[in-house]
Design a protein that fits this description.
The chain is α/β, with parallel strands linked by helices. The chain is built from 12 helices and 9 strands. The strands form 2 sheets. The protein has a 6-stranded parallel beta sheet, with helices on both faces. Strands 7-8-9 form a 3-stranded antiparallel beta sheet. The structure holds adenosine monophosphate. The site of adenosine monophosphate has 17 residues, from helix 2 and strand 5.
């Protein structure tokens, strides 16, 4: 069945209130559209765990910096609705900017302790924009569960802390990164990559895999692990914007030995038609959930 499309929050609320009166559970997947298999995985997961799945498509102006790609961000609404249908989505919420942010909108939500790290250093205000829109959407949808991809690991950490700190009733569910056959993390921005840039982009997961392989052989020294990743990038002339090891919960720098799961995170600008900034990560850990994600990365980068 085709999903119902809502542009007005009052209509969405009325629809969902009726479903809730019937005792239905609600899953929610917020996106900016230009959907790919990564988004589809979140949608299928929600559809399998909830009676009703809400997909939001909103290119949020508040999370783009002045020199970022807001105006040229890909918009593929008809294809998105078709993919949503195939994934079992019940309704699509696609509000305008003025529906989300009326002229007198005056609130900003922030998690400063976590937002200034990693991507936050290079995208000032980005996570404040993300927190503001996601809290607003979570309040509008009132879902039992909301699904977020670990491709945007810092976003997941920031949003789960926001919900925990503010006692938000929606459960935040992390979903492993979905990768192309050669290991590149799927992203709406990958479509900006020229053929040459796409070939080079493969180095990003390869660099993470080099560190992950070393980790699997027993290496626990932060510098050795970072060095392995850095060498793979340097071999093809790439210099990351950042490549860091952080605690997977607090995002504090890990500079010595790893004794808890550690996030290895990278942002790598790639020259294409303009610069495309790729982000990726893997958690170095032998624990079940994280180890399976690491296995997936390694199996695609052999
Ligand atoms: P976006 O439309 O880029 O804002 O992403 C919407 C949601 O999809 C976010 O929770 C992302 O983390 C998630 N997502 C994007 N790409 C992937 C991927 N390759 N694997 C898993 N989740 C993803």
């Amino acid at each position: 069945m085709s999903p119902v499309v809502f542009c007005k929050r009052a209509e969405l609320r009325e629809f969902l209130e009726a479903r809730r009166r019937e005792g239905k559970s609600v899953g929610f997947v917020p996106t900016m559209g230009a959907l790919h298999e990564g988004h589809a995985t979140l949608l299928r997961r929600s559809a399998s765990e909830n009676d009703v799945t809400v997909l939001s498509i909103f290119v949020n102006p508040k999370q783009f910096g002045p020199n970022e790609d807001f105006s040229r961000y890909p918009r593929t609404f008809p294809e998105d609705v078709e993919l949503a249908r195939q994934c079992g989505v019940t309704c699509v919420f696609s509000p305008s900017a003025s529906e989300m942010y009326p002229d007198d909108f005056a609130t900003q939500v922030a998690v400063p302790k976590l937002s200034g790290e990693l991507c936050g250093r290079f995208r000032p205000g980005h996570f404040d924009g993300v927190c503001t829109v996601v809290l607003l959407l979570l309040n509008q949808v009132g879902a039992d569960r909301a699904y977020f991809g670990l491709k945007d690991f810092q976003q997941y950490v920031v949003l789960s802390r926001m919900c925990r700190d503010l006692a938000h009733p929606t459960e935040i569910v992390p979903v492993p990164t979905v990768r192309e056959a050669d290991g590149l993390a799927m992203s709406s921005r990958n479509r900006y990559l020229t053929r040459q840039a796409r070939a080079l982009a493969r180095t990003v997961p390869l660099s993470l895999a080099a560190a992950a392989n070393l980790f699997r052989t027993g290496e626990r020294g932060a510098e050795a692990l970072l060095g392995a990743a850095r060498r793979v990038l340097a071999d093809v002339g790439l210099e990351p914007q950042y490549l860091e090891l952080r605690d997977f919960e607090s995002l504090e720098v890990v500079s010595d030995r790893l004794n808890r799961p550690a996030l290895l995170a990278i942002a790598q600008p790639i020259e294409s038609d303009g610069v495309v900034r790729l982000i990726d990560n893997v958690v170095l850990s032998d624990d079940g959930f994280w180890a399976r994600i690491l296995d997936d990365l390694l199996s695609r980068t052999r």
